[in-house]
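Example: histidine kinase.
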Amino acid sequence: MSAIFAVTTYALAQSYLLSQRERAVLRQAYLDANYVRGRLESAGADVPAILTAMAPTSGSALVVHWRDRWFSSSLDVGRSSIPRSLRDVVADGRPASIRTRIDGVPAIVIGVPLPSVQASYYEVAPLRELQENLRTLGVVLTGGALVAALAGAGLGVYASRSVVRPLNDVAGAAAQIAGGRLDTRLPPTRDPELATIVGSFNSMVDTLHQRIERDARLAADVSHELRSPLTTLVASVEVLDKRRDELSPRSQRALDLVIEELDRFRRLLDNLLELARVGAGLAPEAAEPMSLWELLEHTLARSGQTTAVLSGARDVQVTGDKLRLERVFANLIDNAERHGGGLAAVTIVGERDRALVLVDDDGPGVPISERERIFDRFATGRTARGSSSGTGLGLALVSETVAAHGGAVWCADRPGRGGRFVVSLPRADARPDGATTAGGET
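Written out as structure tokens, the predicted fold is:
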């Protein structure tokens, strides 16, 4: 805009100044032409003396064509300085003017016929001074345009930052909230236009936080309240199981179904309670550095698995809640046994700043369309991957616990045949760039 304004201003100023100069030169030329005509009408007129007496100012030059002779008040201006087109028009008895350049200098040439004395009068007015003024104006306008452009750019950057910074703050806060940090709030602002937005955003997050906490408490309270009747049922069923021999075969089968469903119900309540604890966040005092190899050895042993399936890096350290991480890997091992045709291998891969644990099974794998859905709560695979006795919470608990530790979990295909679950956790003993302590496709 500043450039357009400068160009427009320059063009208007140039047009106005040129027209003003041309009108002034025309008026003076007509006055001088009348004076020359009057002097030439007198007897014994001396043209050089007339031109000298007129004493032209502002660098103008006077030229008279009389009796086939050319007279000039300047040695630098003469017949050759008058454009032929102008001489032809004046010779036809018509006054005219033209803009031209004489020795590289712009000038206005006015021609006035003097038929009463059979002469022609020309006045050459240079525009050097006007050109210099216009050049100065152009420099000033250009400098002003540059200053205005820089000032506008600076103001625009400042204004855009003032507008974008709050939006970035909102986006950052929303990302943190989406990542589970429900205590995130926008800082107060003195800007009255943003205060309403900040207040509404914080109120919305407060309401959301309260609702999530209320739902989590409800799930935890319900799960806790169900433990007492569940314990009573389990005790009663154990009494019946001890007298199994006294029951008929049909009653024994019914008892086995009840035992199986009670075990599933118990695991469901345990997972619900654990999910409620995970939703409350990871307590800083519960986090401790640990050897990932030793943790997996212990988990495999408690799950009744041989440690021969464990391979990879032995020196990888992670930081977290040992009991919760043990539950993560126990759930993945249990998932491989129940739904994946059995556990095939557990591999530790140490990357520069991440530790990967690959849990492989011998099942048919997980279809691509279900690889994200299976980590949702109460999600079960649509395709057969073994028993359907799961609670639908095991993998959800894995995902949320790993996320609380700053990691991620995903499902992939095992090279050859089977499924693979990959757990990625931050390393407590980060390696230099590019260092890897064990290989393996993920």
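Confidence is low (pLDDT under 50) at residues 382-386.
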